[in-house]
Amino acid sequence: MAWRDIFRYRLRPPATSTDRPPRDLALEALRGLCALLVFYAHAFLPFPALDPGYAPSAVFWWFNLGAAAVLMFFVMSGYVIGLSIREPLTGPGARRYVLRRTARLVPVAYAAILLAWLLQPDLSRHMLLGNFLFLQNDVPYPVTGWQFPLLVNDPVLWTLNYEAFYYLLFLVVWWLAPSAVVFFGLITLVAFGPALGLPVPVLISRHACGAYYWMGGLALAWCTAAPAAAAAGRSQWPSAVLGAYALWVVGPLRLLFLQGGFYSLLWPTSVSPHRLDFLPACLWCVLAVTGRSPATQRILAWLCLGWAWFGTGWLLFTGQWSPIHYVATAALLAATGLMFRPAFSLAGLGRLGPLGAISFGLYAFAAPLQISQRVLLPEFSGTVLTFAVRLAGLLAATAGLAWLVDHRLHQWLVARLRRPR
């Protein structure tokens, strides 16, 4: 493709078969592992969060990838939508899309909101209404000044506001098929608008930062080819996972912003300009677990690894080294070394595929259950044993509820939607 052709490339479904793609167990496994990372991040906070009388060692916090997992969720969401939409926009197609997205988002979201309310009945009607309408936010909406607070016992549902926004934005992209360069250029302008002095509301800039990830996943599905039969089932996925961990911990872009004094780009949220260098790692992981576009995988791999090595050198040079960076460097060494050996089978990772069927539930139900059990069992606390028992009970309760709502109920709804009318 010539350079001038890049500017003509449009975001639209490829002219390929409209058949629904088969379920990708390795991708489902990645989704499930990301949900567990969010669960881990809240359970192993370095203060008494799960057990009111016991705090885990801060060493466990070295493996906190909850925010990184959320960004990976955005990429996978856009990717899956792109795989399922393989034809130009039509009225019936748009209706099917809206029904399927509603069936995917609403049951688990509403069940999580009701669970939060049942376990904490003093939640305000204003807070509940905002979450039911997917309007929850921690900054006011522009013009109106409206603000619908996050659920105090399930704040992770903030992502559903973003997810609903991207579902609607997708309809516009599907309809207009904009130039990819122009579209992502516009996202860049909006994301960096406040720092550039443009009158862009902070809430819109945050959504633009998250749109890099969601639309990046969509671009993967529409712009990369399925793996050839000879390459299917194998990739350098362990290197991608280890490299993503190292890049997240080192955060070279964050270091550069800090060193350069660009504090207006360091937002206290994962959907922030200072975390945009994690996007290539997310794209690499998704391509690696799906086996798509080996050539693009290699480009992203060396881009991510090289950037992470740069950040590691910067930490050493500036004296900002800390114990966690030993772990990150070990992961980076392993990720780099594994790139020089034959590709790994995805079969082992695919065995964790069933986790993906309850990933949304694991993500949405854990927080209210965790917070409520601290109140219900105040005396059973203070030791490693009580923490372990609480952790096991929380995981079992969350997984069980997720299986009922996210798996069984969702299967029933999908079957009803697919039934001929």
Textual characterization of the structure:
- The chain has a two-stranded antiparallel ribbon.
- The protein has 16 helices and two strands.
- The chain is globular and about 65 Å long.
- With 421 residues, it is an all-alpha fold.
- It has a domain at 234-342.
- The chain starts with a helix and ends with a helix.
Task: Offer a concise description of the structure.
It contains 16 helices and 2 strands. The chain has 421 residues and is an all-alpha fold.
**Structural classification:** mainly alpha
What is the number of beta strands? 2
SS strand fraction: under 5%
- Average pLDDT metric: 92
Main sheet? Answer: 2 strands, antiparallel
* SSE pattern: HHHHHHHHEHHHHHEHHH
Instruction: Give the overall silhouette.
Output: globular
With strands numbered from the N-terminus, the spatial order across the biggest sheet is 1-2
Alpha-carbon Rg, integer? 22 Å
Helix content: 55-70%
From the N-terminal CA to the C-terminal CA, the straight-line distance is 45 Å
Contiguous low-pLDDT stretches (5 residues minimum) are: none
- How many alpha or pi helices? 16
